[in-house]
Amino acid sequence: MVVIEGLGTNLVGAYGSSSAITPALDQMASQGVLLDQCFLDSQQLPEQLRSLWTAAHSLQTGPLPWNLWQGFAARWGGRSSASGMARLLTDSPQVAELAEQLGCPQITLIEPRSTSPSILLPAGGPRHEAIEDLAQGPAEDSSQCAVMELLATAAAELASGPPGLVWIHSRGLRHPWDAPLDMRAQFADPEDPNPPDCIELPSIAIDAETDPDFVVGWGQVAAAQAAVLDEGLSVLRDTVAQRPDATAWSWLVTTLGGVPLGEHGRLGWGHQQLVGSELHTATIIVPAQPLAIGLRRPELFQLPDIAATLAGLLELELPSAVWGQNALALGAAQSPDRWLHELRMAMLSGKQGNWLRTPAWSAILENLEAGSHGDTGNDQLFVKPEDRWEVSQIADRRRDIVELHRQLLPLFAAAAKCGQRSALPVLDDDLLNLLR
Fold first, then answer.
1. Which residue pairs from 131-139 have beta carbons closer than 8 angstroms and sit at least 24 positions apart in sequence?
2. Are 140 and 165 in contact (CB under 8 A)?
3. Residues 3-24, buried b or exposed e (16+ Cβ, 10 A)?
């Protein structure tokens, strides 16, 4: 079982034919299950990983009854057994530390040479003399990109390592954007200006005065970075395909949110927003026996559901009260009024407010003090699935729908806090009906 997580790209299909950018990911989607509406449950990395490794929602408090690393050891043995072992490969010291705390038996930390703090400053930020000692521009070849250092180590592990669980956490698009210039140019039209040739992570405000070509250029760089990641994924897939036990391996690829590309006034990171393009996780599951035709699941999933699905693939026993739901144990995809009750809502609570998704709507609700019934003029509401990019804010026109979401917020939070997903309330028909 291979898990690849944290790539940070939702760029499949962003530039014309998606196969031109991410052919490996597209092939996986054609042979597996795509969680079409899977979202983060927190914007903080430690809480995201806790959800992925415990199947608990980030809002849950108190001792957690299960975690992946201990569950694998209980099912398949300790550090090593005839059935394999569990191990983590990562380029993040923070992730390595969290895995160790939860009992991961083997951790490989690869810190790329190009992760000097100075080189990771957002575009436009102050530069430090130390950057002069590092690469000044894009890589000459995709194999030299910073993100490839971890993926090369993972390929070596997969080539000769024992079977079991191989979890690969990559910082992905949070590495320097160092894709080669020729890869960037592939996504530019003949009349376009040359894409940016710098490698710093962008963190740029976008407004009506911003040159559209500037935004498009950074989008071309992001597409090139996604193509580099896809090349690395292709190498991993080819490596496993050469193993004598290749047909026994399954795959799970997921991201920890998408990269902002200017749709909501920001290009790159540095200012978190509660919008679907940043909260969505591109999640693909390919069982050991690939599907003849890929399946897209429409329900509302979050990170704990990925954990429960992974547990099912690994034949791990989950407590009956765990929050996550196994996406591979569901029946045929149907309309929202026939979805599993537990998969009709998704929520994230952040500093900017609360995000609540129901089948027909996406709401951003400002934080109010306990018992307050003050002005909620900063609430936002978007129609789903039609308003994919959330550009038409209609909270003022449908205050009734906003109020329904406000009533659901404390009920969801209370259920998540105690890990009782079955306690989620029944939704009003106006929140389920996609035909308006």
1. 135/176, 135/178, 135/199, 137/178, 137/197, 137/198, 137/199, 138/178, 138/179, 138/180, 138/181, 138/184, 138/197, 138/199, 139/178, 139/179, 139/180
2. no
3. bbbbbbbbbbebbeebeebbbb
Q: Which two tokens stand for residue 273?
A: 């927003």
Structure tokens at 408: 């659901």
Same domain, 203 and 311: yes
φ, ψ (nearest 5 deg) of residue 27: -65, -40
Do 209 and 261 fall within a single domain?
Answer: yes
Kindly give, in sequence order, each residue whose CB lies less than 8 Å from that of residue 233, ignoring residues fewer than 6 positions away.
4, 24, 25, 151, 253
**Containing structural domain, residue 7:** 2-329
Best CA proximity match to 33, nearest among 247, 329, 234: 329
Task: Round to whole Å and give the CA distance between 178 and 117.
Answer: 15
Residue, of 404 and 130, whose pLDDT is higher = 404
Side-chain half-sphere CA neighbours of 123 within 13 A: 21
Structural domains of the chain, count: 2
Where residue 39 falls among pLDDT bands split at 50, 70, 90? very high
User: Ramachandran region of residue 77, left (φ > 0), alpha (ψ -120 to 50) or beta?
Assistant: left
Radius of gyration in angstroms for the set of CA atoms belonging to the chain, rounded to a whole number: 22
Residue finishing a domain among 329, 358, 388: 329
46 and 173 share one domain: yes
Q: What is the pTM of this model?
A: 0.92
Residue in this structure with the two tokens 């090139």, named with its chain if needed: 224
pLDDT digits (tens, 9 = 90+) for 419-428: 999 999 999 9
Residue 377, both tokens: 């003029």
